[in-house]
Amino acid sequence: MRFESETQHAPRSGLILLQVMVFGLFCLFTLRFWYLQVHKGEQFAQKALDNQMRQVLIDSARGRVWDSTGRPVAVSEPSFALGLVREDCEDVEATLAKVAQWTGADPAALMETFKRGKKRVKPFEPLILVTDLSYEALAHIEANDIFWPGLEIVVRQKRHYPEGSLMAHILGYVAEANEEELEKNQALSLGDSVGKQGLELTMENWLRGAKGKKQVEVDALGRQHNEQVIVEPAAGNNIALSIDLDLQRLAAGLLDGQAGAIVVLEPDSGKLLALVSQPAYDNNLFVLGVPQDKWSELRDNPMHPIQNRTTQGLYPPGSVFKLLVAAAGLSEGFITYKDGVVCSGSYQLGNRKFHCWKKGGHGYVDLRQALVQSCDVYFYKLGERMGMDRINAYAKASGFGVPTGVDLPHEKAGLIPSREWKKKRFGEAWTRGETLNASIGQGYVLVSPLQVARYVGALLNGGKLLKPSLLRDEPPEIQGVLPLADEHRRFLVETMVDTVQGGTARRLLRPDARVGGKTGTAQVVKLINADQRRKAADMPYKYRDHAWLASFGEKDGKRYVVIVLVEHGGHGGEVAAPMAKAVYDYLFGPPPGKTAVQADPVIHQLEAGD
Amino acid sequence: MSPIDRRLIVSVNWPLLILALAIFAVGVLNLYSASGFRMGEEVSLQSFFNKQIIWGGCGLFAMLLVVLVDYKHLGNVAWPLFFVTILLLILVLLTGRTVSGARRWIEIGSFNFQPSELAKFAVLILGAKLLAKRSEKLGWIELFAVVGLGLVPALLVVVEPDLGTGLNILLLLCGLILYRGISGPVFKSLLVAVPVLLPCGWFVLKPYQKQRILTLLDPEKDPLGTGYHIIQSRIAIGSGQMWGKGFLEGTQSQLRYLPEKHTDFALAVFAEEWGFVGCIALLVLFCFFLLQIYSTARTSKDRFGSFLAAGVFFYFFWQILINMGMVLGIMPVVGIPLPFISYGGSATIVNFCLVGIVVNVSMRRFVFKKS
């Protein structure tokens, strides 16, 4: 062996190594190819023909929803769909024609479904042609599908809402996931249902389980055998609502035929016992895809059944807002209990006259009287002294103009107007007159029934703003504290009791419980002018004011807040109070003695303006 | 640029080029087949086939650029290139674009760049430069120095995580060390140490990587996870039998769920359609391709060139070994593609560039320095 010069030659041993490696590679893989393709080729070819392994997803059961006493309000039932596995189907057109014959479906529509599905569904997965088969059709297919390879009955979970429209605004509904949702969530496959509204949407991740996987072997005829579950499906979690179904039903019945909202909540926990918005819609309609005509009917209905009035209905709070303005005045040191005002029936601001609802005036009223009698002039004066900026800041700190955070989608924040807001919205400066309007809860101020419920709850529970909760087992969540001294808070609660004793909410009076309330009337006509909407001018109903009642009741250590809003219901005391009374009769049992309070003319007068 | 004169053209390792192009053509043809669903539908994934052709064009162009510059200049940029690569690898870990959980890309405008591709070159060139310097067999010190240098980029790549590329870099370096040769005592010590140390590596692996190795031993244990690939891949290959089912005739039903049938498992599609005969033909093509690289390494006029060619040899060799082994079910599933057969843009360009380096060495083997 010659000594190699350093720069001239490649290392000999290295070169030999390379040759050996190539030789080894060739031998190794030739042997392996031979073993697999020639020695065992027959077997593998047979396997490929006979038994194709397929992975199939197993649906998981969506969690169920119960009311607080365990009655089901959302369940999943099996439903049967007919799918076509393209790979196993010999003659698509003939098969589709047969399916049309069995199910009564339109052949052209079936073809359309098939063409659309081809883009999304793999050839070895069932492409769903018909959902929710009737039992007759099912029996027919079961008997005949052996002659039509590729057809497959697919069992799927279908959501059902036993209570329908009664719980629709709370539960919302599930429906087939659209393109966007499929893109966003990789766990979803075509044809899966997802929550679209209500708790079904906000609690989607909690309710939806995880799919399982099974491996099936499919023979050349498309028959499945040797199923083997690889991943067990995980069922979704259940939900127990805080809602009491009986109370919900009662409240919905009270509003029957009218548009409005009723909220019942426990002030100490924030739990909602009833949350009713009327009119409602049947959420079962949406589960299998709502037909276009039905949808148009719902969407264009002037009563807006789709809207959840408890969270999305915004109304001027009327006199109910006076509680907040009084709280602001007390907290900011503008008034004391003793400060009085002489109400002559109107208040002069520059060259404009602002009227009290009571034409003759209330005479001399202090704060307690002003709240009980709902004297507008007192609050005009107070609002004027405080100015809008202060009212705005205080209202925001008390939870108005911001969403309550309830677990329902698309909640609206309401509106507490301000100089900036008006500048931005109308390009105009804020006027002092608008401050006066806002002080009695009219004008631009907008609140939702749920916000009012949260506020009244906070007045009762020591000033804690709690997140209104629909879930029975959710611990209370404190969102903030009212900027209000305890003494003042108790004073406001007392005036509410007085209002029931001898003011505008006297219908709620019952000897065995401590009940307080505040009625309110939200003017509508001004709104129409403001919105420049005159198309409803021929409907007197449209002109009627909205009726508010914010109330609470205490008996045997149990406390409840009941808020009623009736759209175009006229005066709070007349329409809303009997509804609230019926709710208390359910909560506390019927009052001893007579069951109905006779309306007496004095009250009638009181309520004439409120 | 040094002028390209006639002598250079004549000296080019033409068989190597032709073999590379032939294997690439087989790959493109196979992609065409792997891309099509023939369920009464038009070919739906044709873009892979089209794109691969474009990548091939880019690769050939890049190869031309590599060929133009005398490879001896590569030795001068070995160190700077190495450090720039390390910096880029660190940069990508800090700021890279995350795609399905791995940070591998640096975005430059609309162009995505994988520093791990550059690392292959950096390690190849630096390794060749260092190991070619002396001719006696490697002692301990040199061995540790070279392996240490290679470990830095390899580990950075593994962290991305890109086990396949990291493994490839290390194996390439080990190959070069073997090519140079290890001194007797060191070799004996390693012979004892490696089998002892190998199980320790077990604890470094991520759970899913352990799973793959366990699966290899018993594919039926995890029939839907990694075992699924192996079982289905074997069925596809086996069912090709002696003559295969014919071009475009593979049922592919077993591989239809595998996204890797374009990339890592492309060979399974090929084997199903071309059978044992086709597979052996492809294997022969690969072996001749490797032997052409070997002949360039043998005839190179200097050791640096020889080591460069050997490095390229090992780069391709390990990939062929690991990918074929994986598809044939005798090696764990590691994400390593089959050169020129698997779909992949950057891989195709890198492969052609590496062939370019070998061509570069081959064509300048008779050109002497003007002294």
UniProtKB/TrEMBL annotation, chain A:
Its EC number is 3.4.16.4. The keyword rRNA-binding does not apply. GO terms for molecular function: penicillin binding; peptidoglycan L,D-transpeptidase activity; serine-type D-Ala-D-Ala carboxypeptidase activity. Keywords: Carboxypeptidase, Cell inner membrane, Cell membrane, Cell shape, Cell wall biogenesis/degradation, Hydrolase, Membrane, Peptidoglycan synthesis, Protease, Transmembrane, Transmembrane helix. It comes from the Bacteria. Residues 260-584 form the Penicillin-binding protein transpeptidase domain. Pfam families: PBP_dimer (PF03717), Transpeptidase (PF00905). Coiled coil: none annotated. The keyword Manganese does not apply. The chain crosses the membrane at residues 12-35. One of its GO terms (biological process) is regulation of cell shape. GO terms for cellular component: plasma membrane. It is found in: Cell membrane; Membrane. PANTHER family: PEPTIDOGLYCAN D,D-TRANSPEPTIDASE, PEPTIDOGLYCAN D,D-TRANSPEPTIDASE MRDA. This is Penicillin-binding protein 2. It comes from Desulfolutivibrio sulfodismutans. The lineage of its organism: Bacteria, Pseudomonadati, Thermodesulfobacteriota, Desulfovibrionia, Desulfovibrionales. The gene is mrdA.
Automatic annotation (TrEMBL), chain B:
Pathway: Cell wall biogenesis; peptidoglycan biosynthesis. GO terms for cellular component: cell division site; plasma membrane. It comes from the Bacteria. Keywords: Cell membrane, Cell shape, Cell wall biogenesis/degradation, Glycosyltransferase, Membrane, Peptidoglycan synthesis, Transferase, Transmembrane, Transmembrane helix. Its EC number is 2.4.99.28. It is an enzyme of class 2 (transferase). It catalyses: [GlcNAc-(1->4)-Mur2Ac(oyl-L-Ala-gamma-D-Glu-L-Lys-D-Ala-D-Ala)](n)-di-trans,octa-cis-undecaprenyl diphosphate + beta-D-GlcNAc-(1->4)-Mur2Ac(oyl-L-Ala-gamma-D-Glu-L-Lys-D-Ala-D-Ala)-di-trans,octa-cis-undecaprenyl diphosphate = [GlcNAc-(1->4)-Mur2Ac(oyl-L-Ala-gamma-D-Glu-L-Lys-D-Ala-D-Ala)](n+1)-di-trans,octa-cis-undecaprenyl diphosphate + di-trans,octa-cis-undecaprenyl diphosphate + H(+). It is a multi-pass membrane protein. One of its GO terms (molecular function) is lipid-linked peptidoglycan transporter activity. Pfam families: FTSW_RODA_SPOVE (PF01098). InterPro entries: Cell_cycle_FtsW-rel_CS, FtsW/RodA, RodA/MrdB. It is found in: Cell membrane; Membrane. Belongs to the SEDS family. MrdB/RodA subfamily. Peptidoglycan polymerase that is essential for cell wall elongation. This is Peptidoglycan glycosyltransferase RodA. It comes from Desulfolutivibrio sulfodismutans. The lineage of its organism: Bacteria, Pseudomonadati, Thermodesulfobacteriota, Desulfovibrionia, Desulfovibrionales.
